[in-house]
């Protein structure tokens, strides 16, 4: 007996289909749909599916619904898709039940109805459809159409996950990670992430990359982090594209590569990722991996700024402030500073406070300056803390207070702000708002002096010279006078000569100190 050829099989099925056999009509439609042994024709596929569907064949009803949903061989029509899905679903066809549930959930082709969505997802889920099981889990997780129940969400996610359904594996991993509906278990979370990631699920790949990047539940491994970021990024996962850009930008686990960083930032930026758009703007502004182009920088900053990204708003403000890449316009600059400041951007708050304090580009308003300095200062921004101290020191300010001024100077000084350290030293030196304390004065002068503050260097020298706040030490005095003179303090020269004279004219260099 000869084996049938595609041509003879087609003729056999076509003959049966023309005789009205529903299974043959469906098979013939399937052959036309896929171009199996015949030229592909969605129109003929639909015609034969329709005949089988009208005869009540659930599989054909389902396939006809899919073609209406996707617009294959006919104009897309969700309502008609829903009609055919319902006929198949009522016969217990799981895939049709799932699709009908999806149309109810989205409100496509029929009124949105989460209760109906739950019903049809539930019917399909009970038959083992993993997509329906996953969606039912999501409904229980969010409380849409059902009472919120984290344990039931985990139950349905697990049923789909053990069938290899990647989305459910990812969702189950998140539940184990958070301990939501199940005891927290990092090892289980990572295992399910790996299974989903291995199937190409981009969010799972991204989360697994984050774990390796940070050493969260797994050993820190830059190679593995890059591997999984890249796998997700090449699928268009925007956060992975951005993070891959950061990795190449910072040389984290790979040689630093500005061009490669820019390439990934551009991919993410093209998808509207605001932080990536801001970073592309910075590359154009500073010529990193691309020729310097302030006008292009402004456009990228604008894209991110219009999405409310505060760093881009601040950067765009700086360009308008300087006229770099755009026409200089202080009012527009201040408007962008304000938008960034209202979102908590430290430097924007500081810049806005400066404008109100100085009346540069806006009417002078010391109360507004105080308010913006206060906001930045409370975020531990040392320059704002120092300037807030200065504003409290002003007799014409909105809230004069030596005590408040000293408090803010101290906060800034403790963060290493040299001017604040010097000012706080002066307060202790003169007993202004604090008990006079030469030891404290010396300590703060020295901190500022070590940062190169010339007047502080002079004062440290004077305190060593006089033995005030510290034991007298002419060698130390000479050292600090010498540094102060080099940094422009003319008076230091006279004291240096005096200190040297007291040592018998010999300058004794300090261990580790620079010697001319």
Task: Describe the protein in words.
This protein is an all-alpha fold. Among the domains are: 345-415, Serine Threonine Protein Phosphatase 5, Tetratricopeptide repeat (Alpha Horseshoe), CATH 1.25.40.10; 438-511, no CATH class. The protein is 69% helix and 0% strand. It has 28 helices and no strands. It has helices at 6-18, 22-34, 42-54, 58-70, 78-89, 94-106, 114-126, 130-142, 150-161, 166-178, 186-198, 202-214, 222-233, 238-250, 258-270, 274-286, 294-305, 310-322, 330-342, 346-358, 366-377, 382-393, 402-414, 418-430, 438-450, 454-466, 474-486, 491-502. α2 packs antiparallel against α3 and α11 packs across α12 (202-214). The longest helix has 13 residues, at 6-18. It is elongated.
Radius of gyration: 36 Å
Order of helices and strands: HHHHHHHHHHHHHHHHHHHHHHHHHHHH
Helix vs. strand class: mainly alpha
Helical content stands at 55-70%
Q: What are the low-pLDDT stretches, counting only 5+ consecutive residues below 50?
A: 507-516
C-alpha termini separation: 107 Å
